[in-house]
Amino acid sequence: MLTKNNYLTAVFILLILLFVFFQPYCVQAQESQNKTNIEGTPTFNQGILIIILLIFLLLVMFIWEPLPIGVISLCIPVILIILDFWTKVSVEDALSGFSNSATITVMAMFVISRGIQNSGAMQFLGNKIIKYTGDNEKKQVIAISGLTGIIAGFINNTPTVATFIPMVTDLARKTKVSPSKLLIPLSYAAMLGGTLTLLGTSTNLLGSQVSARLINHPFSMFEFTKLGIVVFVVGILYLITIGHRLIPERIRHDLKDYIEEYEIEKYLTEIKIAENSPLIGQDIGELLSNKGKNLDIIQLNRNNEKYMEPLELKTIRPNDHLVIRADYETVLEFAKINGVIILPEIKISQAQLENEITGQKVIELVIPDNSFLKGRTINNVNFLNRYDASLLAIRHGGEIAHTDIKNFYLREGDVLLLLAAENTIERLKENQNFIIRERDETETIAYKPLDIILSVGIAFSIIILASLKILPIPIATLAGVAAMVILKLIDPQEIYDSINWEVIFLLAGLIPLGVAIEQTGTAKFIANQILNIAGFLPDIIVLAIFYYMTTLLTDIISNNATVVLMIPVAINAADQIGANPFAFVLAVTFAASASFASPVGYQTNLMVYGPGGYKFRDYVLVGAPLEIIMAVIVPIAISIFWGL
User: What Cα–Cα distance (Å) separates residue 641 from each residue in 211, 224, 342, 578, 584?
Assistant: First the structure.
């Protein structure tokens, strides 16, 4: 049976087949329509229609994700070649995204960021924040926003946020501040800081590539830093004066433990196996397979010993105590049928589940944007058996799931509440697919001063080499990767694990799409339609319109997709009104990094969505005013610095 997502996939494939089938019959019609009007703007023809339909289809696919975004992106070059009569894309154009300098630089920067994380540099700075701010919420927002933004200006902002999430939530708990008040500022500051230099975000690198191709003006390392400083300062001032006041306390800061925070007391029950129970002699795995999806065994207590996953092969004995996760009606039915005794006087707490001797702890596991769990369920990947952990609950934004959670489809930003052993926690910490948080963590991070100096030195060397044009940026970053490996700051195997391949595949697919948008005349056609409505307005207002259009589009789809779609249109609009095209390129590039009013438009917003317990409307409440402010500030600053 087709699911909702499979319907979208079927439609996608059907459209491709229809295009291929009708191609021979449309050649003559296409040749007759492929003309230009007196003003040089292409008439609406089949090539433009096909590109617009493809863009619309991709927008739908990016929003609903019937397939991983990386897979969708890899289909784009294939489609462009199948429809090459209309798309005007050659095989070289279709594959250009894989060898593009932006793709190579982004790939290398993921590795550089991992090397810096390995050194403990960012955790060291996080601990300094804790010592400086104390329990003063405004100081916390200032310190977190300022430090995150500056760091994100020089290394990719996504791993910056991934590293800081555990530190920020730990700071919030230690100082009795709701983590909800700090995590949106963390994400916003990383986005704002990403506008400071060319290396701050993949959006800047992709925008530079498109600008170089269309107007022969790539970005230098610090070309737009003065504009980035304006944006950063305005954004931080907003966060510390207005923004943090608008953020609700979705997660209470006065709760004793995770059991209270996740409201799972009523879903955890301890039972005792009676002497005459029919369950005696059964394996727990057999019991669970017969029971179904609404009941799970979290822990086995036998003779004062606590056992957790893997429990499937444990044989049930008389007087065993089982901690069950299920709603109370299911527990009552289970007890009635299977001869077990419910122990209502025992209230399950975090302390009861944990075991200091064996290292069992309750932890939170955050799903980042590059995790293999994204779009899959716990059962799909056999996660609990693979990592010997028990699943207690799942937080998706402000909602908490307690039942049928092993079949819950996970998204980036979701938080899994797990009971795991010490060796499992260490394995999870070393895996880039997860971000681990422990309540009241007392572990002292072993900083490596020499590694910190070397890794940060490599990062600054890349910036110096690229900014002085001693080496091209992609070559400088690849040299940095080599230096990281030679100096043993990163293990060679870590290189593959540290790269967010979905971003790489996204760039590889979007770059040839940008070529098709330009070569078919689609960009000029769309620009002409926009100017038919707004062309009579002053240039700075048209610039502001493009900025805000880009921001709204970024709130719906990814920032990189928005840059590819909007920069060619903006350049054509600038040409038609006689304005400075580079000013329009900058406006679109900065707008693509200004997705403040939605959790889905930018990776860092999704990463804090679950840990902050946010609802979609929280981003609208806090982010929409900031987007409006930036839509005024950025066009004015661009007109002052670069002219229109």
Answer: 18, 9, 72, 18, 13
Residue spans in the chain of domains classed CATH 3.30.70.1450 = 258-438
For residues 556 and 592, the answer to whether their CB atoms sit within 8 Å is no
Give which of 529, 522, 519 is closest to 48, Cα–Cα. Answer: 522
Residue 342 backbone phi and psi in degrees, to 5? -80, 135
Q: Which of 167, 165, 160 is nearest to 200 (CA)?
A: 160
**What tokens were used for 133?**
């701010």
What does each C-alpha distance from 127 to 124, 317, 366, 447 come to in angstroms? 5, 48, 21, 11
Distance CA 639, CA 303 (A): 75
Residue 44 structure tokens: 């609406």
CA distance 583 to 432: 38
Radius of gyration of the chain (CA): 27
What residues form DSSP beta bridges with 301?
A: 306, 321
Element (H, E) at 267: none
Look up residue 314 and give its DSSP letter: P
Q: Is 323 exposed, middle or buried (0-12, 13-18, 19+ CB in 10 A)?
A: buried
DSSP summary character for residue 283: B
CATH topology of domain 258-438: Alpha-Beta Plaits (3.30.70)
The string of pLDDT tens digits covering residues 193-217 is: 999 999 888 899 999 999 999 999 9
Which residues are registered as beta bridge partners of 342? 271
The pLDDT tens digits of the residues spanning 146-197 come to 989 999 988 888 888 888 888 888 888 878 888 899 999 999 999 999 999 9
Q: What residue ranges in 203-275 does DSSP mark as E strands?
A: 268-273
